[in-house]
């Protein structure tokens, strides 16, 4: 029994403290119910909003090449809504379980109140007897002192005898209360010990039950996050598979009016040939499969005006000239691309002859709305320093991209030259009088494993990780005083072992079309980062640095081969003894850079009323919790037997046999991760001052 429950406390008020603590447990259960119910409500509102958003995506315009993309959005959003609705269902089921526990808890408390009523009476008895005893003691002392005073002062014998009678009565009363108090105390201590144990059992059961509820809650949320990640990954895959050509193909298939020229027989399209710069020949449609009919296109430049400066052709003149070239309208994607190629080649010759860049405006003349440049989806690329000549053209586009979406459109400069921005944000800012800003990064991974006996094929492993950046306090002033701070860009390296990456979408951008499976580039929304750090500094102005959660990831695992410490457990249970052996083996292959496992502890619950334990190496037995604990020194390849060993224990029982239970193991490792993932800063303006890596156990369990 714990000391808190064993001691009655000052003025014997321990009973009241323990009783009210039991009642507080019921309050906590109800508050936990309210919390889970509120979370379910939030998830339900969010799910309904996502469902509404999916319906709106289905009602968007079905015209144009972009129309099929809305189906991808609609399907993905519907799946996200389903994920959150499934979480609502799980939480509602959990609420029912918690409510049942609250009801059962109330019954237990009512029964306990009846059972400890006698203890409450014993408490009241000892309290009232104690008060009476104190008063009797004070009266006894007063009468005795009074008798002695009269004797010393030479009072008459009658006065002395009278005082003696009073002193004798006080003595007898005091003696009687002392005996009564001793009896009350003995009864109180006996009943209080039994009641305190009862209260402790109730409280331990309550805490275990509450932890089980929280574990179920956390598992439901975690499963939902995994499902959401899968939906997100599927969405990215669908978008990567939605190419420009496939969208144009769908448009041609859905809007095409036929595959043949009206009033003509089927013709065969031949390969184009380009013999020279001033003219070109193109095979055209022919009724004869073997002898194609050709046509000749001649380009006659407009005669220059008389004057000191050569005049340039106007757009109208070019439109008039190019309008005389007539080609068959395209009916398939291949013909469409050939068509554009011919038109583009013709315009290039015009550019050469007249010295003006007319390609883009004349493509708009020939193909208004379908030329590809105005609607092309362009993935972001890392920010590049732009020259002075191009900065004024690309910067406005870059600013729009950094605050809106992951696509862009072409824009026309004043000289009618198409300029397609390639920056994902403002160009990096060079801090002329300041050093590069220091940034620290930390990778923290959690390995969860469940070993089944000694069978390695039944080992279940899940490894997750977090990436956190730390910013010094002084960086906030730099960001807030500079309207365009350098874009913080980094490369996540060695990502081939990552199954899933979930970036902080509020702060980070990334390019979903990156093809390198071993790296992934990210860059910050600097406005959002500045706002986040400013808010953090306002909440905690005394902090010297601020940590920001950047992304979470899940590491692909290969069963027991991915665990840093392999486990196998063996139990032998009889009515009088329990033999336990836990074999362990350090597994350097699970780590890219093997490091020692520190703070290794093994906790083993054993029931059956253990009366004696023998263990090798020595373990500590906790009789109150019925658990044995091993604390081991660091385990590595340099340890004995290259990090392999066994824990053995023999438990003698008074109420066996024991039931094999789940063993819990914990350890940690500094300086390395299981995934091998790393980070590299890109661009100028920042430097990496610290790169910290560690991993530790989450739920690391083994059972026979």
UniProtKB/TrEMBL annotation:
Keywords associated with the record: Coated pit, Coiled coil, Endocytosis, Membrane, Phosphoprotein
The keyword Ligase belongs to this UniProt entry's keyword annotation: no
Disordered: annotated segments: 252-293
One GO BP: clathrin-dependent endocytosis
Coiled coil residues, start to end: 133-205
Protein family: Belongs to the FCHO family.
Protein name as annotated: F-BAR domain only protein 2
